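User: Hello! I'm new to structural biology and keep hearing that structure can be predicted from sequence alone. Could you demonstrate with Oxidoreductase NAD-binding domain-containing protein 1? Please show me the input and the output so I can see what each looks like.

Assistant: Of course. The first part below is the input, the amino acid sequence of Oxidoreductase NAD-binding domain-containing protein 1. The second part is the output, the predicted structure written as tokens.
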Amino acid sequence: MAHATIYVGFTVPQLLRGASRIFPTHSALVVLRHSAFCYCTVNGTIKSKRKMDHLERTANNFRQEIISQAKVCGMTNESERVKRLRLAVANKDFTFKAGQWVDFFIPGVSVVGGFSICSSPGLLEREGILELAVKHSVHPPAHWIHTECTLDSEVALRVGGDFFFDPQPGDSPVKLVLIAGGVGINPLFSILLHIADLHGYQEGKGNGYKMGTVKLYYSAKNTSELLFKKNILGLMNAFPGKITCRFHVTQQSSQICKELEPHVTEGRISEKDLEEHVSKDTLWYICGPPPMIESISKLLSNIGVPRNCVFFEKWW
């Protein structure tokens, strides 16, 4: 494999050798390439007796060939249980589409992590920076990020995934509805930031991008678990009428702050919330726990949304 040796104290082929039974070679991967959108079909309820790891779950997903060294250059707590990492990517040819994830290789940790990117492709292009927001868990890569990772820690990254939004200049504008549950906000926040970048390019340069409106529905237990909320409010203020958001909380016990309160609904995302957005030029992107995705998919089917307009990412 090209670009295989990573100088972070290990080589990626050595790390993957133990997983060879579940990790296909590049020639065996099913490569799905679409210029703008990739459709993933909803197949009903997940039935599994055990939790698959990242490599098993994504064995048939697209993966880039490039594996790049990266260095941690920033760490913040996005919430009590979610840590946000800024990573300086070494390889200048490393790219991704908004909504994709990375294989996350850690020296000394045999398990490969899989984390959705929460920053925009534009940030990587402008500054060589990629961001991840990782929830604490006992899973070795997540546990390492929360307990051992420090500034200047070195890792390696490879982009993969068939869930993305990548419009091209000259494409007809579409409306987007983004529906997130919990940390499922990560790839959708990347898409939201990408749309904001393209709106900025459209206004400043007139370079052929035609962007429609985007509505984000984001559900969590309470407002303290809503990730990126200040950034999202900032985007709404920067692009009024073009980017809007409704936060949903299901177990709120404390008072909601004044800044956030006008945008918060107590209760789950409902059919009534979604039906006003149904149109022939609307695309729907969903990311969250499988039960939520299945529930939302049924709601969309009930209100007449064609299956080929629904895109989703199931991780858990």
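User: So the tokens describe the shape?

Assistant: Right, they're a compact way of writing down the 3D structure. Reading them back into a model, for example: The radius of gyration is 19 Å.
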